[in-house]
């Protein structure tokens, strides 16, 4: 009888440790997220399930073209791509991204641009000064984010810049659906 009690106690202890580890990992390191909507098409599809690395930005700053998750409101997280970094001026003119006046290629948009006719545009022209906040350059601890589906994305053009306090983390691993499992490269 004593052996049975000891065995049960060991099982309960092991389960409590496992749940504790799961809680710590889920809270501080990695979390699942489901893509909701078409704003990151064709890179991400509605319903794609991904893993968010929540601790990466504790060690380093976001980089251009990272795909990030951030708190857009108290109830909603968004997934977008970092386009502008602190200290930079961002503008789009004739579907071309300019950072500090220099043209920057966006290879993840190339396929979409090739499918469009010559008179269509993917991204309406804008300058950083025209966005909410009317900044001349992106302030420290902020980034400018855009969805890959520029015609159908609620991003910095509407929401304004994203502060690092709003940032949940970087995501690059699609784990479901099975036929879309992949690691996204910037």
Automatic annotation (TrEMBL):
<dbReference type="InterPro" id="IPR019533">
    <property type="entry name" value="Peptidase_S26"/>
</dbReference>
<dbReference type="InterPro" id="IPR000223">
    <property type="entry name" value="Pept_S26A_signal_pept_1"/>
</dbReference>
<dbReference type="GO" id="GO:0009003">
    <property type="term" value="F:signal peptidase activity"/>
</dbReference>
<dbReference type="GO" id="GO:0006465">
    <property type="term" value="P:signal peptide processing"/>
</dbReference>
<keyword id="KW-0812">Transmembrane</keyword>
<protein>
    <recommendedName>
        <fullName>Signal peptidase I</fullName>
        <ecNumber>3.4.21.89</ecNumber>
    </recommendedName>
</protein>
<dbReference type="InterPro" id="IPR019757">
    <property type="entry name" value="Pept_S26A_signal_pept_1_Lys-AS"/>
</dbReference>
<dbReference type="Pfam" id="PF10502">
    <property type="entry name" value="Peptidase_S26"/>
</dbReference>
<comment type="similarity">
    <text>Belongs to the peptidase S26 family.</text>
</comment>
<feature type="domain" description="Peptidase S26">
    <location>
        <begin position="9"/>
        <end position="176"/>
    </location>
</feature>
<dbReference type="InterPro" id="IPR036286">
    <property type="entry name" value="LexA/Signal_pep-like_sf"/>
</dbReference>
<feature type="active site">
    <location>
        <position position="39"/>
    </location>
</feature>
<feature type="transmembrane region" description="Helical">
    <location>
        <begin position="12"/>
        <end position="35"/>
    </location>
</feature>
<keyword id="KW-0472">Membrane</keyword>
<keyword id="KW-0378">Hydrolase</keyword>
<dbReference type="InterPro" id="IPR019758">
    <property type="entry name" value="Pept_S26A_signal_pept_1_CS"/>
</dbReference>
<keyword id="KW-1133">Transmembrane helix</keyword>
<dbReference type="GO" id="GO:0004252">
    <property type="term" value="F:serine-type endopeptidase activity"/>
</dbReference>
<dbReference type="GO" id="GO:0005886">
    <property type="term" value="C:plasma membrane"/>
</dbReference>
<feature type="active site">
    <location>
        <position position="80"/>
    </location>
</feature>
<keyword id="KW-0645">Protease</keyword>
